[in-house]
Design goal:
This protein has 373 residues and is of the alpha/beta class. It contains eleven helices and 14 strands. The chain has a ten-stranded mixed beta sheet, with helices on both faces. α1 (14-32) packs across α10 (330-345) and α5 (183-198) crosses α6 (216-228). The longest helix has 19 residues, at 14-32. The chain binds 3-isopropylmalic acid and manganese (II) ion (MN). Residues 266, 270, 298 line the site of manganese (II) ion (MN).
Length: 373
């Protein structure tokens, strides 16, 4: 059996952590009798600086032939913030309509959490972050002047929206950004969360800010309530995003599946990463169940560590486990996670986790563990 997977190392520490992750995924293939045919893409800051290209039509056409992309990290100190993030990472998420950003928050055995009184069984939930809407749609402008007319468009597989905006102001300078939630967009994310909860502890928490941003998150809540009606065995609750940051720290054991619009999902999963032991341990999957999905660590590219072979590859290796799950290699996926846990218990970790190992050494070690654990 062969799976074809696209690999994008990207910027900063991206290429090193992806190399470690690939080694582990390949080792899982050897054990479970499949082979990964990797195809590398040089998308990222280096190519952008050399050619001015972020993501070409050719890239998109080529990537569309894969059901999975393994992605390192994006962001480079030589490029203004936002260019690579929007032009590459978000562009891939949107183009392939990867409407779910799945982020497990789970404290592995042997990992230190800053929550002194919590144990692995207390920290085990999943955040389902809607991944195509909200304040991420890129509808906004900034201008200094009395008037601006602008047409802004959102094109998704399931709908498109056009805003014709005619803004008049006596403010000296002004910027605005519009968040968008649609019934269909919210529904597919919320339904995914409920389907996940059916296979877990049967509880879904909606995180929003419907008390202030009552149009977009009011619609979100209505859709949540409508979807929930179809799942009578699933317990539900609403949390405001400010309060949930407190509950994540105080009572993480309350959560099972958390579903949330895009921007709050971005924010609360960095907090989630910290309670599960740090950004070095937090993976994510950008999922289109019927299309091209992409698996990546949720941390950034840490440009200052580029080429030093010191970055923690565990988030990326874990993302590799999620990628294997997505390819239907469930046993291999579970084995990779067990091997990660084993390497931590053995103390074979990078310096951010108190160890002395290099990125590539951790990759090699976990790859060897995958054959036996
Ligand atoms: C993440 C990142 C991205 C996001 C950035 C790099 C665009 O922070 O994956 O969480 O905001 O989604
Ligand atoms: Mn983020």
């Amino acid at each position: 059996m062969q799976h074809r997977v696209a690999a994008i190392g990207g910027d900063g520490i991206g290429p090193e952590i992806i190399a470690a992750g690939r080694e582990v995924v390949d080792a899982a293939g050897e054990r479970y009798g499949f082979d990964i045919a990797w195809e590398e893409f040089d998308i990222g800051a280096e190519r952008y600086l050399a050619t001015g290209e972020l993501l070409t039509e050719e890239d998109l056409g080529d990537l569309s032939k894969f059901s999975a992309i393994y992605f390192g990290a994006i962001g480079d100190d030589r490029v203004k913030p936002g260019i690579l993030e929007k032009g590459i990472l978000l562009a891939i998420r949107f183009h392939f309509d990867q409407f779910i950003n799945l982020r497990p928050i789970r404290l592995l055995d042997g990992v230190a959490t800053p929550l002194a009184n919590k144990r692995p069984e207390d920290i085990d939930f999943v955040v389902v972050r809607e991944n195509t809407e909200d304040f991420y749609v890129g509808i906004g402008s900034r201008f200094a002047g009395k008037r601006e007319e602008k047409t802004l468009e959102i094109v998704r597989d399931i709908y498109s929206v056009k805003f014709g905006l005619d803004v008049e102001t006596d403010a000296e300078e002004l910027a605005y950004q519009i968040g968008v939630v649609t019934r269909a967009g919210a529904e597919r994310a919320i339904r995914y969360a409920f389907d996940l909860a059916v296979r877990r502890e049967k509880k879904v928490t909606s995180v929003d800010k419907a008390n202030v941003l009552s149009d977009i998150y009011g619609l979100w809540r209505d859709v949540f309530t409508d979807v929930a009606a179809g799942y009578p065995d699933i317990a539900t609750e609403f949390n405001f995003v400010d309060a949930v940051t407190m509950w994540f720290v105080k009572n993480p054991e309350w959560f099972d599946v958390v579903v949330t619009p895009n921007m709050f999902g971005d924010i609360i999963t960095d907090l989630g990463a910290m309670i599960q032991g740090g950004l070095g341990l937090a993976p994510g999957g950008n999922i289109n169940p019927k299309g091209t999905s992409m698996f990546e660590p949720i941390h950034g590219s840490a440009p200052k560590y580029r080429g030093q072979n010191v970055a923690n590859p565990l988030a990326t290796v874990w993302a590799g486990s999620m990628l294997l799950d997505h390819l239907g290699e469930h046993e291999a996926a579970a084995t990779v996670l067990r091997a990660i846990e084993r390497s931590i218990l053995d103390g074979y970790v990078t310096r951010d986790m108190g160890g002395a190992q290099k990125t590539s050494e951790v990759g090699e070690y976990i790859a060897s563990l995958v054959k036996t654990v």
